[in-house]
Amino acid sequence: MSVREQIIDLQKCLPAGVKLVAVSKMHPASAVEEAYAAGQRIFGESRPQELCAKYEALPKDIEWHMIGHLQTNKVRSIVPFVSLIHSVDSARLLEYIDREAARIGRVVDVLLEIFVAQEETKHGWEEAELTAYLQEGTWRSLKNVRFRGVMGIASLTDDRERICREFSRLHALFVSLREEFFGTDFDTLSMGMTSDWKLAVECGSNMVRIGSRIFGDRNY
Fold first, then answer.
1. Domains of the chain, CATH where assigned
2. Closest Cα to residue 19, out of 206, 214, 200?
3. What do you get for the CA distance between the two ends of the chain, in Å?
């Protein structure tokens, strides 16, 4: 199937209320243009340099999402235009985003990345660490970030029960954080990729990040 056909097929499969982030990292701008022509408007990138280059080259009504690990020294380059940062994994990064957003008069939407996978390579807050940070309260002084929800990546495994446990844990944490700290603006649960998005949606995801199914394998 072509990129266009994959986009159309996915949009038919996704339940109402579930947003599709087309993960275009390491794919050329021409592939993004093909998905754009099929009606896709939300694209995810994991490298700030590639994200900035595609932002400059492609239509300005695209919503660009930063989904990869973000270093503090790269924040300034993406804050002027990024629609949503999925990968906020520390208080230090939050402070950098807030400072850079304030400098240019923006409020930037962010997701808190939670570590749930049984793999050392994944990033994210530990639940206890995040809860302690939120209870301490200094985040309330960050006026140029808007907390929109939670992101997580399940273990890379064929064990569906383990993946389901991890997704269910993410969903439970999302609900509890919304109720205890954030309220109705905290409305996004980003979990599920090409291999596990259907299970993620069953477990409550309302935003899925799908790349290889749409664009094919990446050329690393």
1. 3-212 (3.20.20.10)
2. 206
3. 22
Q: Which of 96, 106, 95, 111 is nearest to 147 (CA)?
A: 111
The 10s digit of each residue's pLDDT in 18-61 is: 999 999 999 999 999 999 999 999 999 999 999 999 999 999 99
Burial of 56 (0-12, 13-18, 19+ CB in 10 A): exposed
- Outline where 82-126 has alpha helix (H): 91-104
Contacts of 213 (CB under 8 A, 6+ apart): 6, 10, 194
Is the CB of residue 209 less than 8 Å from the CB of residue 190?
Answer: yes
* 3-state DSSP assignment of residue 38: coil
CA–chain centroid gap for 43, Å, is 10
- Name the pTM for this structure: 0.96
Q: How far does Cα 121 stand from its chain's mean position?
A: 17
Task: Give the up-direction half-sphere exposure of residue 108: CA atoms within 13 A in the CB hemisphere.
Answer: 32
Question: Which pair of structure tokens corresponds to residue 4?
Answer: 């266009």
The set of residues, in sequence order, having a beta carbon less than 8 Å from that of 171 and lying 6+ positions away, is 189, 203, 204, 205
d(CA 99, CA 102): 5
Question: What is the distance between the alpha carbons of residues 203 and 71, in angstroms, rounded to a whole number?
Answer: 30
Taking CA atoms, 107 is separated from 50, 51, 99, 165, in Å, by 22, 19, 10, 34
